Amino acid sequence: MTHDDMTEAILIAQLRQKAETFRTIFDQTLQFIGLMTPEGILLEANRSSLQLAGMREEDVLNKPLWQGPWWQHSPELQERVKAAVVEAAQGRLVRFEATHPDTEGNLHYVDFSLKPVKNEQGRVTYLIPEGRDITEIKQGELEGKKSAARLKAIVATAVDGIIIINEHGLIEAFNPAAERIFGYPASEVLGRNINMLQPEPYHSEHDGYLHNYVTTGEKKIIGIGREVVGRRRDGTTFPMELSVSEVQLEDSERRFAGIVRDISERKKVQEALRESSARMKAIWDTAVDAIITISDHGQVLMFNPAAERIFGYAASEVIGNNINMLQPEPYHSEHDTYLRNYRESGLARIIGIGREVVGRRKNGSTFPMELAVSKVELGDKTIFTGIVRDITERKEAEERLHQAKEEAEVANQAKSEFLAAMSHEIRTPMNAIIGMADLLWETSLTTEQQEYVRIFRNAGDNLLNIINDILDLSKVEAGRMQLEKIEFNLRDLVEKTGEVMAVRAHEKNLELLCYLPQDVPENLLGDPDRLRQVLINLIGNAIKFTPAGEIVVSIKAQPSAGPGGNKDAAQGKTVELLFEVKDSGIGIPADKLDSIFQSFTQADSSTTRKFGGTGLGLTISRRLVELMGGQIWVRSVEGQGTTFCFTVRMQVDPEGKHPQARASADIAGLKVLVVDDSDTNRFILNEMLGDWGIHVQEEDNGLDALTTLRQAQLAGNPFDLAILDCRMPGMDGFQLAEEVGRDPLLTGLTTMMLTSDTRSGNATRAKNLGMAAYLVKPTRRTELYATISEIMGRKKSSPEVVVPLPLPEGAASSGTSRSLHILLAEDTADNQLLIRSYLKKTNHRLDIAENGEEAVTMFKEKEYDLVLMDVQMPIMDGYSATRAIRSWEKENNRTPIPICALTAHAMREDVAKSLDAGCDTHLIKPIKKAYLLDAIENFSRK
Question: Of 261, 103, 94, which Cα lies nearest the Cα of 175?
Answer without folding.
Answer: 261
